[in-house]
Amino acid sequence: MKTLTLLFFGLLLCPMSLLAQSADVLLQKVSDALSAGKDDYAVSLFRQAAGMGAEQTEMFYWTRIEKNSAVAPRLVRELAAYYKDKRNYDKAYLFYKEWLQYYPEDVPGLVACAEMQMMRGEAKDALKLYETVLALDADNLQANIFLGNYYYLQAERKKKTLEDNYKKIVSPTRMQYASYRNGLSDVFANGYDKAKNYLQKVLQLFPSTEAGKTLERIKILEKEMNK
């Protein structure tokens, strides 16, 4: 029992340097595997090294890997996936962007990059990335869902602002009313209509209950606008 207790506490007190050492050992094996032309084995070792010491593994990629080599983008994807799994969205975004340096029109890579930007609070950049996705793959479900919801929520905010400001006018003139109606028309053209197109595409691809409900709300708003 005493021996087991000492072993248990020894494991708990294992210094971080041992993990770093393990990562360094694995990375040396990565180098050896690459030199021997064993790319698949090298990628597997690299994945293990990331789990043992992400910073050492990242530095290995930046300083030891030829960026024009066939294995380089595969190692980038390993780091991107590792950091995404760890919810380190800043680092994950960095490496998905690095992946796109190799394959700028890779749809899964663009989608992953957009996801990371959403998690980082960069919705406008995510919007651009998803628009790029749809230029390459018009049937991409995730991009259509994002853009449909994005334009709908933007339209909702702008519509509320217009209505709140108009309600503040005690006795609106015809010109003020006309300006209000024109503002609503603009919100519909540049917000709700765009949202409708994307969400209709979503329903063609997938029976989404939420997309259906949002489209019904847009239809009701359209009827109110046309009164």
UniProtKB/TrEMBL annotation:
TPR repeats mapped onto the chain: 73-106
Keywords: Signal, TPR repeat
The organism's taxonomic lineage, starting at the top: Bacteria, Pseudomonadati, Bacteroidota, Bacteroidia, Bacteroidales
Cleaved signal peptide residues: 1-20
Protein name: Tetratricopeptide repeat protein
